[in-house]
Design brief:
Blueprint lengths: L1 E7 L18 H6 L6 H19 L5 E6 L5 H6 L4 E5 L7 H13 L4 E6 L1 H11 L5 E5 L13 H12 L4 E10 L1 H5 L5 E11 L16 H14 L6 E4 L3 H9 L10 E4 L2 E4 L4 H10 L3 E5 L7 E3 L8 H7 L4 E4 L2 H5 L3 E4 L4 H10 L1 E7 L2 E7 L4
Parallel strand pairs: 1-2, 1-4, 2-3, 4-5, 8-11, 11-13, 12-14, 13-15, 14-16
Antiparallel strand pairs: 6-7, 8-9, 9-10, 15-16
């Protein structure tokens, strides 16, 4: 029998769709902008998958769940018929202290693994409490997930948990990294390594930590990509530019004030919306028939959707259409990015990406490369 600690950060990811690039210190503003809780939905996807496999195959699932009260775990586990023991009673409005107190309780009960639903901030709080005493595994539900303890999507978490209980995985190490959200909202990318945590070693379902890719000709290559994009701009087409340095260079080539870490919209050579959120994107999409989305993958992890750009929500992507997504990256980034990944929040849409098997990436002026799309389905 394995003892698993299970906790949910109920507010994780709420700042993403509304364009706040995180939820740290801005929860009230996120709610004011119409943000809705997402973490319990993401945790539910994991537990639903576990329950489905158990029921379908009559699998033995030798797990005892320890958790927190109400929305921090208990409600979700009971929803899918899992018995659990509450070892921490959280406040009505949860804080980082609840996460830390729950982890202290898990340690006292000698848990074998802590499964949490949140983002880098939650991973950081857990690591500060437990260090490298217990392996941790993340259900991705934040805005930014640069740490190497997260699975690529909620369903993948269930596969890793099953493998863990079947003793087919070893314990490895992963970096706990987090951005300074205050600086991030101002367009400054400032990331810090908080430590090395224990996690489960698995190469297909668990993402790596974000890599910072630089090379001697990096800026020249970005200029070439930008030249190609500018040359191919179509009239009366809405262009949505995602975050990142490559997209910033494209913005400069188009002579617009592109945000480095936000999402912007261009129409007929003019910047018509800057640092926009999901609601604003949906409004623009309702007004424009022709649209192109340009994004760049996160180095090493390979995510083009679902990490750092939650404004590009399920509804937004469905309106844009997979066929209208343009991916751009420098060759040096691709050398450390063996696969492309998506985590749209909808398994059926993720499957549509997976069925394409390979996606084309613009890597220079009139130069493209193919990368396999790796989506566990």
């Amino acid at each position: 029998m394995y003892t698993l600690g299970f906790l949910i950060n109920p507010i994780a990811g709420m700042g993403g769709k509304v364009g706040l690039k995180g939820t740290d210190n801005v929860l009230d503003e996120a709610v004011k902008r119409g943000a809705l809780p997402l973490a319990n939905l993401r945790a539910s996807e994991t537990l639903k998958r576990i329950k489905t496999v158990i029921d379908k195959y009559h699998s033995d699932f030798p797990v005892k769940w320890l958790t927190c009260s109400d929305s921090m775990g208990e409600d979700c586990l009971k929803k899918y018929g899992f018995s659990c023991e509450v070892v921490h009673h959280c406040k009505k409005v949860t804080t980082a202290d609840d996460t830390k107190l729950a982890c202290k309780a898990f340690l006292k009960r000698n848990v074998d693994l802590i499964v949490f639903c949140g983002g880098d901030g939650t991973a950081r709080d857990i690591y500060k409490t437990i260090g490298d005493k217990v392996p941790i595994l993340g259900v991705p539900s934040g805005v930014k997930m640069h740490s190497g303890v997260f699975c690529v999507n909620p369903e993948a978490v269930s596969e890793v948990i099953f493998a863990f209980t079947e003793r087919t995985l070893s314990i490895g190490e992963a970096e706990i990294m987090d951005l300074d959200e205050e600086k991030y909202r101002k367009g400054e990318w400032s990331i810090k390594l908080h430590g090395i945590a224990k996690t489960l070693s698995e190469g297909n379902y668990i993402q790596s930590a974000k890599a910072i890719i630089r090379g001697p000709s990096e800026e020249e290559i970005k200029e070439e990509i930008a030249d190609h994009i500018k040359e191919g701009i179509e009239k009366d087409t809405l262009y949505i530019l995602g975050p990142g340095g490559t997209l910033k260079t494209i913005g400069e080539k188009l002579e617009i004030d592109k945000t480095l870490l936000g999402i912007d919209a261009v129409f007929n050579g003019k910047l018509i919306a800057k640092d926009i959120n999901e609601k604003e994107l949906l409004y623009l999409l309702s007004k424009h028939r022709k649209v192109k989305l340009i994004v760049s993958p996160i180095g090493a992890q390979g995510f083009i959707l679902g990490r750092g750009n939650l404004q590009l929500s399920l509804n937004v992507i469905k309106k844009i259409g997979i066929e209208n997504i343009v991916i751009a990256a420098t060759p040096s980034k691709l050398r450390k990015t063996p696969f492309l990944r998506v985590d749209t929040g909808d398994p059926s849409l993720d499957k549509e990406f997976a069925e394409k098997k390979y996606l084309s990436i613009l890597i220079g002026y009139h130069t493209t490369a193919l990368r396999k799309i790796a989506v566990p389905v």
